[in-house]
Amino acid sequence: MKKLFFLFCLIGSFSLKAQPIKLALLVYEGGGDWYANPTSLKNLATFCNQQLKTNLDTKEAQVAVSSPELFNYPFVHMTGHGRWALNDLEAQNLRKYLIAGGFLHIDDNYGLDEYVRPALKKIFPELSLVELPFSHPIYHQKFDFPKGIPKIHEHDNKPPRGYGLIYKGRLVCFYSVETDLGDGWEDPDVHHDNAEKRQQALQMGANLIQYVFMNN
Q: What pTM was computed for the model?
């Protein structure tokens, strides 16, 4: 039933008559600021509605890792700078969600990386993060990124990276590092990114949405 529900969500989101689909922000424990980018999903939804003709609600949902409500949202976004503590029940719930057809985008807002990797290993002990090649379809949807994920913010003078967890041939989690896509999605006066960087961030976000809702 859950897989059928996700299929309904994915098809319905591109119908003009369907109820708008909410993008969800993951609420997690451990002390990390999961709420770090309050305007990002609103702006991403607006951009996708304009560019992809999607039917996304511009008001995000907020859902806890352990909540059964997680299964109501085909696309869940996670961000933050600090610690993510994941208990066994939360790991099981997130695993079931992803196997059922859900998708998780984790965007390291700087300082999250050391907690993300062990958490994902707890969720999928049999899987390892793999860096997606520049040829991966996620970089070639509505917008073309021949060099992979764009660099939005500079922190440690490292190149941006896009990693994935692939379960039975399906990309269930995309992890963006050393880029801060979510910061680029925010209102212009928050981080004062130039128009080009904000456009790149929103375009890459639109690629994620299109890939998940139409191809995954």
A: 0.91
